[in-house]
UniProtKB/TrEMBL annotation:
Keywords per UniProt: Oxidoreductase, Peroxidase
Gene3D superfamilies xref list: Haem peroxidase domain superfamily, animal type (1.10.640.10)
InterPro entries listed in its UniProt record: Haem_peroxidase_animal, Haem_peroxidase_sf, Haem_peroxidase_sf_animal
SUPFAM superfamilies on file: Heme-dependent peroxidases
Gene Ontology terms for molecular function: heme binding; peroxidase activity
Highest taxon, organism lineage: Eukaryota
Source species: Diaphorina citri
UniProt gene name: LOC103510878
Record GO biological process: response to oxidative stress
Name this polypeptide is given: Peroxidase-like protein 3
Pfam families: An_peroxidase (PF03098)
């Protein structure tokens, strides 16, 4: 499935900024301006998270020294926009760089976000001592419990 990155980015930002907002907390609509994408970028900066180039290293990609070196994962029109918004590639926010990457084959995300999401799921599963597949501990599910979990997840609950 080939997805056009600018279209995907526009669609994701539309969903984040318009579809998640309702008149119910925590996504209440603010008529004076409430941009969840901007909040995500600001949150990254507030918490001192590394930028996009640093996360490229974590994802096994080569860190880049110039905007042109991003051409293997980001289209030329988006590289041009990055040049307008950032002085140096080390300044690119993870949220921005990750959304501008061309998606991997049959995916919605490029290599950096794919790595971040996979790493997060790995940590949730193997960092949670109460995960249902952890066996042999006093708090572990029994084989009967695990069978129930499998049946429950495979059942058609009409939802």
């Amino acid at each position: 499935m080939k997805v056009d990155s600018p279209k995907l980015t526009t669609t994701l930002i539309y969903i984040i900024n318009n579809k998640l907002k309702t008149n119910h907390p925590p996504f209440q609509y603010d008529p004076h301006g409430d941009d969840l994408t901007a909040i995500g970028i600001q949150r990254q900066r507030d918490y001192g998270m590394p930028g996009y180039n640093e996360f490229r290293k974590y994802a096994g990609l080569k860190p880049v020294k110039s905007f042109e070196e991003l051409s293997d994962v980001i289209g030329p029109e988006n590289i041009h926009l990055l040049k307008l918004g950032y002085k140096h590639v080390d300044d690119i926010d993870l949220f921005v760089g990750g959304y501008l990457e061309n998606p991997l084959h049959d995916s919605l995300f490029g290599p950096t976000f794919t790595y971040v999401i996979a790493d997060q799921f790995y940590r949730w599963k193997f960092g949670d001592r109460f995960w249902f597949s952890v066996l042999g501990k006093p708090w572990s599910f029994t084989e009967g419990n695990n069978n129930y979990v499998v049946i429950y997840y495979n059942a058609d609950l009409g939802m």
